[in-house]
Write a structure and sequence with these properties.
The structure holds three protein chains of three kinds.
Chain A: E1 4-15, E2 18-29, E3 33-37, H1 44-52, E4 59-64, E5 67-68, H2 74-77, E6 80-83, H3 95-105, H4 111-121, H5 137-149, E7 155-159, H6 167-182, E8 186-190, H7 194-200, E9 203-208, E10 211-217, H8 222-235
Chain B: H1 2-22, H2 24-43, H3 51-76, H4 83-89, H5 94-124, H6 132-157, H7 163-190, H8 195-219
Helix pairs in contact in B: 1-5, 2-3, 2-5, 3-5, 3-6, 3-7, 5-6, 6-7, 6-8, 7-8
Chain C: H1 2-18, H2 32-59, H3 62-94, H4 102-123, H5 127-158, H6 174-218
The chains are: A alpha/beta, B mainly alpha, C mainly alpha.
Amino acid sequence: MSAPSLVVEGLVRGFGHVRAVRGVSFSLGRGEALAVFGPNGAGKTTLLRLLAGILRPDRGDIRIGGLPLVRESAGQRRRIGLIGHQTLCYDGLSAAENLEFFARLYGLGDPRVAALKALEEAGLSDRAAIRVGTMSRGQQQRVAIARALLHDPEIVLLDEPFTGLDQHAAAALRGQLGRLRREMRTVVLVTHNLDEGLELASHVAIQVAGRFAEFGPRSGDAAAFRTRYAEATANG
Amino acid sequence: MASALGAGLIIAGKDLKLELRSRTAFLSSLAFTALVLAIFNFARDPTLISATDLAPGILWITFSFAGLLGLNRAFALELENRALEALLLAPVSRTSIYLGKAIANLVFVGLVEGVALPLFAIFFNVPILPVLGGLTLVIALATIGFVAVGTLLSAIAVSTRFAELMLPVLMLPFLVPPITGAVQVTSRLFAARPFAEMAPWLKLLAGYDIVVVVTALLIFEFTLDQ
Amino acid sequence: MLAAMLLLPAVFIRALAFTPAEATQGEAQKIFYIHAPSAWVAFLAFGVVGICSVLYLVLKEPRLDRLAASSAEVGVIFTTAVLVTGPIWGRAIWGAWWTWDARLTSTLFLWFIYFGYQVLRSAVHEPGQRARFSAVLGILGALLVPFIHISVNLFRTLHPKPVVLKPEGPTLPGGMLATLLFAFVAFTIIYAAMLWQRYSRATLDDARDAARAEADDRA
């Protein structure tokens, strides 16, 4: 395994009396992909937001490339990209305008050029001037992905990205995720969908009630994993 | 701080571009302002009360209402698609988000005021040109105080259930110093009173502005997810 | 708490029975011994809210938020007392229920600040968010109070009222001054007792919620 790119130790986070994440630890190397499965309310989204630097943990450490992720220091956030099931874009602006805005915000060299290049890679050059709000769900997802990868992040976090995608768009997304791994980015994918998660991941985890009931490299045996998953989520 | 301002300007630019695109909020505020002015003018009895007595109060009530309408959009537009999260992800400080929103609000409210003022002069037959300099100064000072607090409070209100109602309820007491000061200065300007009479109020406005802007810059980040 | 509540009738008795009546106003003036100390507590309570708010944002200690909330609840009671005793006094003295007297006006706006604070707290359910939002509003409100004072007083000075109530200054005759000081001290103690009671109840409520959440978790 290559030197760890993402190291998480003893992450704890609560909201009032609800303890959403209660001690999660793992590490991933570059090019590895962790699929986190779990029922609703397991704290998966909270975990992702902690990894993204949006939330501050109550306890625990996150290190990216050996350096700690501190919510106050904006610099480390440059190395992270997040793709949710919402686009995180502005419906009223065109695809190009959205990307140009984010390119500016991330301090990229030539924002306009960066935006157009990202659109080209996403296969959306012909839709650059279309308002994101009027696009199909699949196209919106492509814009969201372009936005997330604009600044070439080392860590890519995905929160239920297959939600609402038709077969065609889902296939395209699967292709893109494979490409992310080949580009040696570190991926953490939160999903309900066992099939897609298992296909793409190098490591799997089952999160139940704020903890990892299981974490490890993906074994070849999908059926056994399904059984373990059903057991873990029945009890939790 | 300089980079926060830079990022803030980028965010403000994006907000204004969005507003320019749809124009809904802006046109609604303008229509509302014109309506309020017209109603006030229509409702008073011109034989009993002269325009110049009521005018400053009416002007500032109108500005306040229009301003409150405009403040809500700033954070509401980040709710769709959870766009705010993208801002939180970006390598910009939380303070720059506040700056961006506040600047956009200032421009928005300023533009509405810019249209409302001539309307006001026309409806009420008040000669504003001779005192335009002083008037601009007091409008600027009062608007800064209003927007600085309003932007901060709207960040809070937008997360509550009745956001459009919550913001005015929270804002109300904070209107007292800027509006009182503004009305007092405006009425003295119209009455061509000596500057010495306006000075204490202008100092109040400036002092208020400094305190609220500094406070808002310091505590804004606590209105966001931690 | 009980001891503190005994102080309230003590103030009444002292004021009515043992203090000389004021020359021009007669017995009605004695409502002042409730009115003025209430005003002092009203502003003191919000000062506590402000300080707890700042400390909460720095230390993130939920107990500070609880204390701020408790002080706000107690404070609004005393503020209301000022706004009720003021007009009663005013009616007796001037024949008018309300005049825009500087201090009464400031207190009125203080009431609105309290009101906003309470409305905000009731509208936010997640405790961490509620505490943060309240703290921000608490700080803003506390900073606003002096500005409202200045605005109102500036307004009054430049628009002198025909009938101005002369504030009782240190030139009070001995008996009245003593009663007044006694009332101030008594009310401060009453405030502290009410604050402590409210805070204790809030602590119990929070503990009960926490226990319930634990039980839910394990279930």
